Task: structure prediction
Amino acid sequence: MSALLFRGVTKAFVPGRPVLSGLSADVSTRDVTFVAGASGSGKSVLCRLAAGLLRPDAGEVELFGEPVHRLPERALRRLRQRAPYLVQGPALLDWRTLSENAALADRRASPERVQEALGRVGLRELGDRLPSQVGPGAKKRTAIARALVLAPEYLLMDEPTTGLDRVATAQVEEVLHGLKRSGLGALVVSHDYRLLTALADRVLVVAEGRNAFSGTPAEFLASSLPEVRALTAPYLETAADG
Result:
């Protein structure tokens, strides 16, 4: 069963200049699917369409069989509990502790449930600290814990390691590996190809508003398609030098 289905999706913010143009893709529930593409290619737009934060100008978006593009806001909120959307930044409230920030996902959540979510991201012992008292990696992991409080079936993640140093990136990567081992699928927008090769089951490349490539990470790195080579060549050169 598909978790996420795009059928002929078109989206423009300026008339006559579509960011996405007839894009179609079928994303499996259990897979960790990375969305790659050049800056401005529409990767994040795709993720926001999946979350129902944007509506397509044409085409259809389905999540768990529900027509995201036609749902009223109340139904969208229920759907987002099943597949929460994590923005690029941690989006924490500075005056709330990490535990309190995580609990904001569901005010009915028990303290035990919140602590379990924090434990899954390695922050059980830091729950009483404020965001200003922890580093960027812990803040990002708190945002992931906030999503886990909902007991989601799927995650929509926009650039989970952007702005993080190597140590913080490694911490987030460890959490994502743990979630994958637990069977939780995700759509991950990222330009971090090292993370992609370590974590992804599938890769979707967005170029010129369309689905330019879909395959495994190995197929992605080996592809000779110009749209793919433009992305992978710098990474492969750096990896060879390192």
